[in-house]
Amino acid sequence: MKVKKLLPIKNGWAISLVWLFHVTAVIGISIGYVDWFIKKTPLNLCLSLLLFLFVYPINNSKRWGAFLLFFAAGMFAEWLGITTGLLFGEYQYGTNFGIKIEGVPLLIGSYWAILTFITMSITDYLKINIFIKMGLAGALMVLLDFFMEASAARFNFWEFLDNDPPLLNYISWFLLGLLFQGILRALKITGDKAFSLHLYLAQFLFFFYFYFYY
Questions:
Q1: Which of 16, 31, 70, 214 is deepest in the core (most CB within 10 A)?
Q2: pLDDT tens-digit readout, 27-57
């Protein structure tokens, strides 16, 4: 297995903004301004979305089609989850993820799409079999979700019954992620790997930190 060279890093201004917002939030929450920073979660996610659309970039009909497909599929999967308990178990969304449709925040649909794109791009650093890349990208999606779950209820993002995400949640995340990865690979879409890596790491380290600290 060979790892492609990580440098040079393009779009450093966007990467700097991503880290600035996440590090500032970590510091602010850690020193006691939990409510103020957590209520700004939609703003942070909107910034990440705008940077992603511009820097990745999502700039042609094929990429927009894939993004909207993952957005719609993610929204439907989450709606199915909160109304039936299928796919992810019994849970409901809180108030800190922004505007909702039928109980599902619009930003969660965007998050499904963004995470699909950036995890795929991260695996393109590796010179390995495409199917292994798909599995690894799906695993990266699940890994981030695992650490998010520990803080989700505390930050009023969402909450599972008895605050205990079932194994089904992670299995469904992986299978849906694997399906989305397959679609992206079939479409042969590529994007900015460095930005993808930094956006993923910023979010991962944010939730990793609060998994142990908060």
A1: 70
A2: 999 999 999 999 999 999 999 999 999 999 9
